């Protein structure tokens, strides 16, 4: 397995998004969720890139959210090393009912800005800090490459009448950089987490 963000890989497969249905939570929905600030030793240098947008994607689901930077400060203030600590045992220090842990098995990108291609094997886990174990998880493996075809006819006259775009239709999704890609992956995953209604 490749580790870290490696530049120069050639990836040709396109990203395929799973369906829009949510994945059920096992047990009661937590009220407050802390985003775990550590990704382990292999991806520590890429933490800010890989966690970019995770708290923002979680917040609209109705949970009170503790961002990873705040969680890191709370853990440091309680003399807890996030790289070695058990997220499930950190509820008191974080004042959270659950911890959202982002597990990265593989993440490789080609290009910086613009991003040209990427592949990943990741998982999001909602871990109870009240002894209920893993409440929810969603794993996603995929790859993506920059679209070079915008879907328009290159032989179409410049002054031709505009083409009709179906409702919901859009061009190929391109990502500016790894941060933009990670934020899109987090939005995709959090759409699978059931909403908290109150």
How would you characterize the overall build of this protein?
This protein has 198 residues and is an alpha/beta fold. It has a domain at 32-147 and 174-190: ABC-type transport auxiliary lipoprotein component (Rossmann fold). It has helices at 47-50, 54-58, 68-77, 91-94, 178-190; strands at 32-35, 64-66, 98-110, 117-128, 134-145. The chain has a five-stranded mixed sheet. It is elongated, with a radius of gyration of 19 Å.
Layout of helices and strands:
Blueprint: E1 32-35, H1 47-50, H2 54-58, E2 64-66, H3 68-77, H4 91-94, E3 98-110, E4 117-128, E5 134-145, H5 178-190
Parallel strand pairs: 1-2, 1-3
Antiparallel strand pairs: 3-4, 4-5
Features:
198 residues; Rossmann fold; 5 helices; 5 strands; 18% helix
Output the strand order for the largest sheet.
Answer: 2-1-3-4-5
For the record, give the distance between the C-alpha atoms at the N and C termini, rounded to a whole number.
42 Å
- SS elements, strand count: 5
CATH architectural label of the domain at 32-147 and 174-190: 3-Layer(aba) Sandwich
Helix count, DSSP H or I runs of 4 or more residues: 5
* Biggest pleated sheet: 5 strands, mixed
State which percent range the strand residues make up: 15-25%
What radius of gyration results from the CA coordinates? 19 Å
Seen as an oligomer or otherwise, the chain set is: single chain
Succession of helices and strands: EHHEHHEEEH
Identify the overall geometry: elongated
The third-level CATH topology of the domain at 32-147 and 174-190 is: Rossmann fold
CATH superfamily of the domain at 32-147 and 174-190: ABC-type transport auxiliary lipoprotein component
